Amino acid sequence: MTIVEKGKTAGTGYQVGVRRTWPVSLERAWDWLMSPSGMSVWLEADVPERAAAGAAFATRDGVQCEVRVVNERENVRLRWRKPEWERASTVQVRTIAASPDKTTISFHQEQLADATTREAMKRHWESVSIRVGQALAMDDRTARP
User: Fold this and answer.
1) Where is the Activator of Hsp90 ATPase homologue 1/2-like C-terminal domain (predicted)?
2) Domain coordinates of the chain in residue numbers?
3) Are the C-beta atoms of 57 and 47 separated by less than 8 Å?
């Protein structure tokens, strides 16, 4: 009998995903996530403008990022590498309409080196997801007339 480790894939190492549903339309969630203020929260990066495919930058913690794919109002895929990592991972952020006024925001990271890294990144994306929800709630309060 083969024991399969949690989060281990056959071909891409370890992976982790965190998703939560928030009371905001898909359009609003996407526009905020891809804005400089949104990216400041979930990527912890100061980007001067809306990120497009090919954009490269570093987070405040020195993580090297490159935007690989942007499918408008659907998903963004990044190469994501911490300074101490031997190789980059792939991060995908996806928005999924749960209803007209609710959106699931999913953070998925793959090509992680080991189970320890997977657990650390799970905690990271859980924390990010909470901050995103708090920021969306604050943004919603300030956007109302």
Assistant:
1) 24-128
2) 17-143
3) yes
Number of C-beta neighbours around residue 50 at 10 A: 13
Distance CA 105, CA 103 (A): 6
Model pLDDT for residues 109-137, shown as the tens digit of each residue:
999 999 999 999 999 999 999 999 999 98
Confidence of residue 10 (pLDDT cuts 50, 70, 90): low
Instruction: Count the neighbouring beta carbons within 10 Å of the beta carbon of residue 15.
Output: 17
Q: Identify whether the C-beta of residue 38 lies closer than 8 Å to the C-beta of residue 139.
A: no
Mapped to the 3 state alphabet, what secondary structure does the chain carry?
Answer: CCCCCCCECCCCCEEEEEEEEECCCHHHHHHHHHCHHHHHHHCCCCCCCCCCCCCEEECCCCCEEEEEEEECCCEEEEEEECCCCCCCEEEEEEEEEEECCEEEEEEEEEEECCHHHHHHHHHHHHHHHHHHHHHHHHHHHHHCC
pTM recorded for the entire structure:
0.89
